[in-house]
Amino acid sequence: MTHSPLPVRVPLVLEPQGILESLRTARRNVLEIIPDIATKQPIVSGKTAIVKWHMVMDPKALRRVLLENLDNYPKSNVTKNILEPAIGDSLFVAEGAHWRWQRRAASPVFSHRNVQNLGPIMERAAERSVERVQQHLGRAMDLFDEMTKTTFDVISDVTFSGDDGIDQMAIHDAIDRYIEDIAKVSILDIIGVPTWVPRPGRITGSRGLKAMKKMADRAIEDRKTGGARDIPDLLDLLLDGEDPKTKRQMSTAELRDNLLTFIVAGHETTALTLSWALYLCAFDPQVQEKARLEAQSVLNGRTATAEDVPNLPYIRMIIDETLRLYPPAAFLSRTAQGTDQLCDRDIWKGDTVMLPVYALHRNELIWPEPDKFDPERFSDPKAIDRYAYLPFGNGPRVCIGAQFALQEAVMILASLLSKFKFTSIPGKDPQPIMILTLRPEGGVWLMVEEV
Known about the structure:
By secondary structure, this protein is an alpha+beta fold.
């Protein structure tokens, strides 16, 4: 079967757009407002009627924003407005001292040892996924739907293991509805228009969200009174966590907000990574075959374990390259608090500084043949500038769950590729559309065969 020489891409803007046209474009897919020149230059600046903006694709400048001058570039009000109704002032949203103490308290939760200890939960979820995929042999299947189920399996077991009072599907549905209803990013958000200006189509509350918070509160209170378990899950570890500097522990509300952050971030992003990885493996059968041989030689017919992950380097390269081409957090936005310089360009207080990760990862100054799917780019990760590749952000605010997500993704992808062959369906390519995260519109429909 012949296919296009490049995997699906977002069509970037070739001509400057007016504000109304940009608004329409952003309602459809916020990534389509990125100018094509952002993939060929280190920085692109512009001005709307109200706000001056800069898109930054230069690793040195990104290092300044995310590390050296971090406090000058807090998350934009927009990001907070979208996420605070769901996850409060938790790690993802908090700034300054409030963020620092929460990060210190939560960091040990995601230590290498704790993440490895959660391996058996990931293994069981991968096993259940293999059983479900098996039922579709010889037929087409939406792998985005399947990966969403699988990663939600993991995150709900990791957070609420053994809590029968938790309606996991209700939580899942509430998150999904919330993302669909509230998280559509408006062009007004991106360019920094004040948050009191109404956003079309955004609601401010959700019954499902309130129910989800109630369930999480109940689970936390129940756990506080229950006994310790043999292998602590995420909730146990958070309950025990304390800031080593101040000995402060999280209140029920803080625990709940951070727990919901990990649920929202921890299942949606990994499901997307796996869905796009399976699409890319179907797109390039040679890559898929090489990955399958590696998985089969390591696994010998069983499901992958956490201990197998270091022995699956090519599977890991596929995950890394997938995160380059389709980063779940494909567009970040910051608001400058004071004057600065990025790429010899003046930044003024109030300027919107955008980090279009999608354009950074496809920038011709950094990546040879940037739109091409080539896992071998990651054969020597040390050769890649740390600020040229930002699927998990970087600096002090690098994603706290990155190792958790990578372990889970490698285990699930290896388990599936060792047993099944996935083939593209002509005319059914997913389209990359950003609604809070970079999703495959229409799902990832692939033919499933046994190997």
